[in-house]
Give the backbone structure.
Amino acid sequence: MDWVSRIKFNENSPLEVQGHENSWGFQRHSPKIMDSSHWHGHVEINYLFGCSADYLINGQKISVPEGKMIIFWASIPHQMIASEGDGEMVNIYIPLHAFLSWRFSDEFISEILHGEVLVADNLHLGDQLTTSMWENDLASKKLPLIMQVIDEIRNRIRRMSLEPYSTFNLSNTTELTDKKSIVSGLCHIEVILQYIADHYDQKITIDDVANITGLHPNYAMKLFHRVMKISIKQYINKLRLQHAQALLIDTNDAVLSIALQAGFGSISRFYDIFQREFDKTPQQFRNDIAKAHDNTTAET
């Protein structure tokens, strides 16, 4: 659960991310003008504390006033081109599979996946203090605190989705972009992602995924990998592992029950995928969480 402090990009191509698609990230910094657009697979939150900023989002200029919280899918090419004020920004990077597993409303998710930038009408009085607390908790590298930060980020986004927010109507212009751009095909990707988010705890085949888009299975797989930088199978397993981790932390359910609830067809398959991903068994993961929690409690 080491969080990256910034998303690094290939110097030869600003559109190529350096393998952080499945990592969480947190960064606090002064606004910095970007030389070119870049993209990565996260859902990104930007807090603008005491500053404003202009962005290019897929070639469309938007201006975000001071004291706003925005959220967008960073797979859309984006670039900060101007800023005003002596404040600071906080960037939070959320792996897409984690964001979709939180199951916000279809409308909220659809706007983000269609390339829209959502703007909370107002920051809350505690947002700046809360992000400072998150930063300190992440620096502690204590797993229970890190998992608490993730829960609080999820709940902050949920509150935003329930309160008034604004958009820039960018999704209406997406279809006018060059068909060779990264945005091409996102309508199919959104359908695939939503289908997987709704069914990852069930058996899913490539034919199932292709049928809901009307695409040939081979093309659906290639398109998904081109945009998401991960195969459909790997992505499904990421969602299942996310679900399993939450159950291992929050419940006392048996490991077999958790494997089935998360969509793994067998306990052996669950153990194999989990250990390959985390270099420990599900039970060892649960024990480590409990031990870390006990140590944190003892210190306080």
About this structure: The domain at 25-172 is CATH 2.60.120 (Jelly Rolls). The first strand starts at residue 25 and ends at 29. The chain is about 45% helix and 15% strand.
